[in-house]
């Protein structure tokens, strides 16, 4: 006989169902609302079915700017993440204060969304792609440094002890034991975060951080559906190309 489901499973299911009902009520969702969305959503989306290709050369330039923002955001991310990783790894940090301080700093980086950081930078250094690159770099540092620090903590202690037994300094332990042990994970994490950063860069123009997102926001605000459709096609094309390149590089690394 199959074991009967535990009672707590039914409690959890009931709570989820209750939360769904209350959430729908608070958002004003009902059958009438859903029917209105289905009836009006189709014609609204149909207006974006005819892209306007007249301004394509300039949009390609803006798309290139978006790509540069994502790449520079990744470079900034690595410049920040590599040193912070050492302090955020419990078994490599010089002391517990450095470990706890770096971990909390990474938590702050992850807690602040890219768009919010970009908005703060646009107010400080002005509108443009530099604000976007800095925002992407800082936010993604929180994820990359934590992932790499956790990987260094998972390295068997014998790997570190073997290098220390040869009289290696702390820097040499990091150079010859820590980083080589997580080389493959470092490469895959870098590829993943670069792909992610380029995707995010396509939308940061909404807060004035440069790139093709500025054109998308302007087109939507002015109800220029043709140009908005063109921008969305270019964004999707860029993401697909980046995804193919990333997959090819990962296959070569395996």
Query: What is the general shape?
Result: globular
Total number of helical segments?
Answer: 11
Helix content: over 70%
Quaternary structure state of the chains depicted:
single chain
CATH hierarchy, class = Mainly Alpha
> CATH superfamily membership, which one?
MetI-like
The CATH architecture designation is: Orthogonal Bundle
The biggest sheet amounts to: none
The CATH topology assignment is: MetI-like fold
Spell out the helices and strands N to C: HHHHHHHHHHH
Q: Name the average pLDDT.
A: 81
Notes on the structure:
The protein is an all-alpha fold and 254 residues long. The protein has one domain (56-253): MetI-like (MetI-like fold, Orthogonal Bundle), CATH 1.10.3720. 80% of the residues lie in helices and 0% in strands. The chain is built from eleven helices and no strands. Helix 3 (56-88) packs antiparallel against helix 4 and helix 10 runs antiparallel to helix 11. The two termini are 45 Å apart. The model has no long low-confidence stretch (mean pLDDT 81).
SSE map:
Layout: H1 7-27, H2 31-46, H3 56-88, H4 96-111, H5 114-125, H6 129-154, H7 157-165, H8 170-181, H9 183-201, H10 213-221, H11 225-253
Helix pairs in contact: 3-4, 3-6, 3-9, 3-11, 4-6, 5-6, 6-9, 7-8, 9-11, 10-11
Keywords:
globular; 11 helices; mainly alpha; 254 residues; MetI-like fold
Outline of the structure:
By secondary structure, the chain is mostly helical. It has eleven helices and no strands. Helix content is 80%, strand content 0%.
């Amino acid at each position: 006989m199959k074991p009967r489901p535990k009672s707590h499973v039914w409690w959890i299911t009931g709570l989820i169902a209750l939360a769904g009902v209350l959430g729908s009520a608070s958002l004003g969702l009902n059958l009438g609302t859903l029917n209105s969305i289905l009836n009006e959503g189709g014609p609204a989306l149909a207006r974006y079915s005819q892209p306007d290709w007249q301004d394509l050369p300039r949009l390609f330039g803006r798309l290139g700017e978006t790509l540069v923002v994502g790449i520079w955001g990744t470079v900034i991310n690595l410049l920040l993440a590599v040193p912070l990783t050492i302090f955020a790894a419990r078994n490599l940090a010089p002391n517990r204060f450095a470990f706890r301080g770096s971990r909390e700093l990474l938590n702050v980086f992850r807690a602040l969304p890219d768009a919010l950081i970009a908005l703060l930078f646009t107010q400080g250094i002005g509108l443009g792609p530099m604000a976007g690159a800095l925002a992407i770099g800082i936010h993604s540092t929180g994820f990359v440094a934590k992932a790499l620090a956790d990987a260094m903590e998972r390295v068997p202690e014998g790997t570190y002890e073997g290098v220390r037994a040869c009289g290696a300094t702390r820097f040499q332990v990091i150079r010859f034991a820590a980083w080589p042990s997580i080389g493959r994970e470092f490469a895959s994490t870098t590829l993943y975060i670069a792909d992610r950063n380029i995707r995010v860069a396509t939308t940061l123009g909404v807060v004035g951080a440069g790139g093709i997102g500025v054109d998308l926001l302007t087109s939507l605000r002015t109800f220029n559906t043709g140009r908005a459709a063109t921008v969305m096609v270019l964004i999707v094309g860029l993401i697909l190309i980046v995804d193919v390149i990333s997959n090819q590089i990962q296959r070569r690394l395996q």
